[in-house]
């Protein structure tokens, strides 16, 4: 008789399913209150209970057992993957019957005036939440003095401005030029703020679905792929790769869909959900979404100067 607890995967993202199909062994590299991360060959998967939400690398575990998996895990534990079962010291996870999570289709992008209105509403709500950490204050208000007060903000602002100017130029006859990717790896943590913002930009460009946005997406994605390996963490690089494939967390997809679809009534709830993602990761991604939409679909103001 074994002392291992048995759990069952309920839902898994496409990259998570690919992870378990491609590797026979992984290692626990991080354990948090509600989830843990496995790594194999610079690829990652996140295991946790339903509260972790859906996403490309997430695996949610059937209610009641997800906390057991996390509680019995330690950094450095080896996980063996065989015949649809992941086995670690203290637990086994059945991966044979999970539901696949696929990002929903993007809504039809509304006209520029409607986009401008929803962006203005997002900016108004975000200003009411200030003070905030991260990049969002720099994007939603040029008049907030505290937003420029720290070293982080002073270094972040010209990076955001350069990217916004480049994006705005891609919509016009001035299109071209190498995209600035100095937001890569910018900021502390496993997923730096700059990377989160770039994920938001990538998903917003895909959601707009215009030819100029598609060209900008391809150009920006190519630059990120060239530079990310030496510029940021392996985990953050995985999220960037997912965004290049058109995949992000469910809450980020919801936020992008709300904006491009002009669904103003859902904006407060969408922002609230993003605000609960990481310390500032969700709102940093929102900053990238806003930059991209302002450049391509609704902001007639001149791009900021660095």
Keyword list:
single chain, 306 residues, alpha/beta, 2 domains, 9 strands, globular
Short description:
By secondary structure, the protein is α/β, with parallel strands linked by helices. Helices cover 47% and strands 16% of the residues.
Write a structural description:
The protein has 306 residues and is α/β, with parallel strands linked by helices. The chain folds into 2 domains: 5-101, no CATH class; 112-297, no CATH class. Helices cover 47% and strands 16% of the residues. The chain contains 11 helices and 9 strands. It has helices spanning 14-22, 66-71, 112-129, 136-140, 151-170, 193-208, 211-231, 234-244, 250-260, 267-275, 281-297, and strands spanning 5-13, 25-31, 35-40, 43-48, 58-61, 78-82, 85-88, 91-94, 99-101. An 8-stranded mixed beta barrel has the order 1-5-4-3-2-6-7-8. Strand 3 (35-40) and strand 4 (43-48) form a beta hairpin. The longest helix is centred in the last third of the chain and has 21 residues, at 211-231.
Give the mean pLDDT: 89
Distance between the termini: 65 Å
Which strands sit side by side, in order, in the main sheet? 1-5-4-3-2-6-7-8
The profile of the biggest β sheet is: 8 strands, mixed, barrel
Q: How much of the sequence is in beta strands? A: 15-25%
Q: Using DSSP, what is the number of strands? A: 9
Low-confidence stretches: 143-147, 300-306
Count every helix, treating DSSP H or I runs of 4 or more residues as helices.
11
Specify the structural class. Answer: alpha/beta
Radius of gyration: 20 Å
Helix content: 40-55%
Task: Give the count of structural domains.
Answer: 2
* Overall morphology: globular
What is the H-and-E element order? EHEEEEHEEEEHHHHHHHHH
């Amino acid at each position: 008789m074994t002392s291992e607890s048995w759990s069952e995967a309920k839902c898994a993202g496409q990259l998570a399913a690919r992870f378990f199909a491609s590797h026979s062994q992984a290692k626990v590299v991080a354990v948090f209150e509600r989830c843990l991360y496995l790594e194999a060959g610079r690829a990652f998967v996140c295991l946790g209970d339903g509260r972790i939400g859906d996403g490309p690398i997430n695996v949610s575990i059937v209610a009641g057992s997800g906390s057991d998996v996390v509680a019995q895990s330690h950094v450095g534990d080896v996980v063996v993957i065989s015949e649809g079962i992941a086995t670690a010291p203290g637990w086994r996870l059945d991966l044979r019957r999970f539901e696949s999570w696929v990002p929903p289709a993007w809504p039809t992008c509304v006209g520029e005036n409607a986009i401008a209105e929803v962006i203005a509403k997002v900016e108004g709500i975000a200003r009411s939440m200030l003070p905030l950490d991260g990049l969002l204050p720099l994007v939603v208000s040029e008049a907030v003095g505290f937003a420029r007060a720290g070293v982080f903000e002073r270094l972040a602002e010209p990076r955001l401005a350069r990217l916004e100017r480049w994006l705005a130029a891609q919509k016009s006859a001035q299109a071209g030029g190498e995209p600035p990717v100095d937001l890569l790896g910018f900021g502390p943590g496993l997923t730096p703020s700059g990377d989160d913002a770039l994920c938001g930009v990538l998903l917003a460009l895909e959601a707009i679905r215009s030819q100029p946005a598609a060209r900008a997406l391809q150009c920006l994605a190519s630059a990120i792929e060239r530079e990310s390996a030496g510029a940021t963490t392996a985990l953050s690089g995985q999220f960037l790769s997912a965004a290049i494939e058109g995949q992000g967390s469910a809450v980020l997809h919801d936020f992008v869909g709300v904006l491009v679809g002009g669904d103003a009534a859902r904006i407060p709830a969408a922002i609230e959900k993003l605000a609960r993602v990481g310390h500032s990761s969700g709102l940093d991604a929102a900053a990238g979404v806003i930059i991209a939409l302002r450049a391509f679909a609704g902001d007639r103001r001149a791009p900021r100067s660095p």
